[in-house]
Amino acid sequence: MTSPLAAEIRALIAAEGPLPVSRYMALCLGHPRYGYYMTRDPLGAKGDFTTAPEISQMFGELLGLWAVALWQQMGAPSAFSLVELGPGRGTLMADALRAARLLPAFGAAARVHLVETSPVLRAAQQRTLDACGVPLAWHGRIEDLPEGPAIVLANEFFDALPVDQYVRAADGWHERRVGLDADGALSFGLDPRPSPLADAFAASAAPDGAVLERMDPGPALALAAHLARHGGAALVIDYGHAGGFGDTLQALSHHRFADPLADPGGADLTAHVDFAALARVALGQGLAAFGPLGQGDFLIRLGLGARAERLMREAEPAGQDAIEAAALRLAGSGPGQMGELFKVLALSAPTVGVPPGFDPSERRGR
Q1: N or C: which end of the chain has fewer CB within 10 A?
Q2: Element housing 52 (H / E)
Q3: Residue 179: its pLDDT value, please?
Q4: pLDDT tens per residue, range 196-240
Q5: Sign of the C-alpha dihedral, residues 286, 60, 326, 157?
Q6: Distance (Å, rounded) from C-alpha 196 to C-alpha 198?
Q7: CB burial of residue 208 (10 Å; 0-12, 13-18, 19+)
Q8: 257-305: pLDDT as tens digits
Q9: Strands 288-294, 342-348: parallel, antiparallel or unpaired by DSSP?
Q10: pLDDT of 1 over the 60 cut
């Protein structure tokens, strides 16, 4: 059975020719009527994937305490924006604000701003955060954030941004595109013309068949420009790498990997985040960049072990096992665990200094 979005994409290709991978991703995720994030809550056991805040309250609580410590490092401004990019159901922000109640002045100064395009998830965030006790505002773009210092949390936000892909051949880099095969089905192919754009930012010595991915720099540039102008810092947590080649485009449906072309709008599409590229954008705007660290190392530095022990002391035996399992999933390095696959990058205005959880030696581009 053909979905409405699949039919629309095929008609678009028939009329205009094969689409860049980034445009295909943007349609699948953000089409105003049929886009993946426009039509559903994708999280949890009944959805397609589970994020760290849904695994345990400890994740959001530790990030809340990180934000409090950073706010103090910033000189405790009397008003600032506490921003989350792609807030899911609002779980992370709710847990962060609960932990931040340890310092009431932080909550009194905070104004929560959520950057979210999905109407379904906006409604879920409203329900989750209605009783949080701080002013809430929603925005469709980072560029719409208000002036003033900001502390920004971005957990699994950048992996959902569209990427372009290029494949190395003997005569240069060729853009990968989504077209139609002989039977009219969606298929990947290559633009027959070499791309001078790819040659401008890729190592010419890459082997034939190498895949280069380039994320839309717009959101990262908007974030870096805001922090450079107004002050503050951002914490980016995602799965990714620190540069290199590889095809990382993937689809998830019902917690299983799927064909990215099989069900446009019905599966989540992501690509691994290039943390080196994010850092370069930040450095270009005059920010400092720290990391990336493995998520496990970062959470342990923030006190994951101590927080888990305290929760276990207050829990029944079955609850203790669940807390221990959640801590291991967040910080472990084995199969199905997030500690090494997910990484943490901090971007900060020069006046902030070294963000909590990082060491001066972990600063990039010095």
Answers
A1: N
A2: helix 52-55
A3: 95
A4: 766 655 655 788 889 999 998 999 999 999 999 999 999 999 998
A5: negative
A6: 5
A7: exposed
A8: 889 999 898 888 999 999 999 999 999 999 999 999 999 999 999 999 9
A9: antiparallel
A10: no
Q: What is the pTM of this model?
A: 0.92
CA distance 47 to 50: 8
Rounded Cα distance, 323 and 317, in Å: 10
Closest CA to 264 of 7, 43, 86: 7
23-61 pLDDT, tens digit per residue, is 999 999 988 888 888 877 666 556 555 789 999 999 999
Q: Give the C-alpha separation, 318 to 309, whole Å.
A: 14
Burial state string for 9-37 with b = 16 or more CB within 10 A and e = fewer than 16: bbeebeeeebbbbbbbbbbbbbbeebbbb
Q: Residue 235 in contact with residue 63, Cβ under 8 Å?
A: yes
Q: Which of 237, 176, 173 is nearest to 208 (CA)?
A: 173
Which tokens hold the place of 262?
A: 């099989």
Q: What is the residue type of 14? A: A
N-terminal to C-terminal alpha carbon distance within the chain = 55
